[in-house]
Amino acid sequence: MAPGPYTITYFAVRGRCGAMRIMLADQGQEWKEIVVNFEDWTKGDLKNTCVFGQLPKFEDGDLTLFQSNAILRHLGRSHGACGKDNGEAALIDMMNDGVEDLRLKYGKLIYQEYETGKDAYIKDLPNHLSKFDAFMAKNNSVFLVGDKISYADYNLFDLLLNHLVLCPTCLDTVPKLKAFMEQMSARPKLKAFIDTDAHAKLPINGNGKQ
Ligand code: GTB
Asked: Mind spelling out the 3-state secondary structure of 140-196?
């Protein structure tokens, strides 16, 4: 396969690049990784070139993007994974915003209150996961919206992988999400990628907490 035109510049973690890597792998794309050491990052040279002073940075040929969700949407549009019409695209955007809301809560737990907040977070998790489960139950397929995989499915999958590490039983009360994870994990290219060291051995978060 010819190398893809994609480059991801990010720290040596899954973090905000887990979903885009899983998506690229599942879509049969190749990409280059530029790994940034946090010590080098603090010198500021690269930071000063980033639109919002943060990573990930994503290059698609001459196009340079920041903001992980914009990158996912761009890949969705490029690879037919953002719905079959405007209505589906809007619902996919909506669900992806829901994933982002949960990712922000997860990030707050991991980076700010892991020791004091973990038990309460896990206790409250069914309230959040049940919303995705109920929405999925109304769709007549294994995906969030329509009958084709979308960028929001990859984002949800990545975030749920993280949650299964945080709390291995967290999907026991949400059967649709459990089936979703099983079917996503059985996709050959996706499974091959998450079995690689490049994914499996990469820390989930930057502070070693998971
Ligand atoms: N809304 C943005 C998006 O979705 O792309 C948020 C991007 C973001 O939070 N980037 C963080 C960053 O660039 C990295 S993700 N932080 C550096 C800075 O702001 O100067 C979280 C993270 C934190 C630390 C590490 N680490 O130490 O390796 C890895 C990832």
From this structure: CCCCCCCCCCCHHHHHHHHHHHHHHHHCCCCCCCCHHHHHHHHHHHCCHHHHHHHCC
